[in-house]
Structure formats: structure tokens, C-alpha cells
Amino acid sequence: MKTKKIPMRKCVACGLNKPKGEMLRIVKNKEEGIVVDTTGKKNGRGAYICKDLECLEKAKKNKKISHALNAELSEEIYKEISSYVME
Predict the structure, then answer these.
(1) Of 2, 10, 28, 72, which is least surrounded by CB within 10 A?
(2) What pTM value is reported for the model?
(3) CA–CA gap between residue 63 and residue 44 (Å, rounded)
């Protein structure tokens, strides 16, 4: 039998490749703006980040997520992301 391919994604903060299921996706689309995508299937431009507070702090400090999505992120969005990271 064939083994199923596991999609890999790169963290915008640390640059490590990890399986898609282990990452958190942040999406920018026209309807909702910038939101956290827990399903990984929403339409729009996406950026992946590790579920790690160090990566979140690095991304926030260097504005890596803002650069990847071509948009400014508010403090509310960073709080929402940090709540998903702490789970």
C-alpha cells in the first residue's frame, strides 16, 4: 500500500518545516479580515506559525506575520493567536 503524504509547512518566525497539523494558520481574506484558521481550509492568504510562545514573540517583534499577510495585525489578533498557542 502507498503511504499517505504528509503536507509540510514552514513557520514564518523560526523557519522550521513541520507537518501542517502541528502548525497554526492565520488567514487574511476579504470577508472576515485577519482570523485564526483552526480548520486549515479557509480561503485567503495564509501564514503558518508553530504552536510555541517563543515563535509567536519572535513573529510579533519582527512583524513576520504582518509581512507574510501584507497587512498590519492589531493587538487583539495577537491575543487571539496566543490563546490558541497556549492550548
Answers:
(1) 2
(2) 0.90
(3) 19
Q: What's the grid cell of residue 43?
A: 480561503
DSSP 15: -
- Here the cell at position 53 is 510562545
CA distance 13 to 66: 11
> Rounded distance, CA 6 to CA 21, Å?
9
Angle between helices 75-85 and 53-62 (to 10 degrees): 160
Q: How confident is the model at residue 77 (pLDDT cuts 50, 70, 90)?
A: very high
Alpha-helix residue ranges (DSSP H) falling in the chain: 53-62, 64-69, 75-85
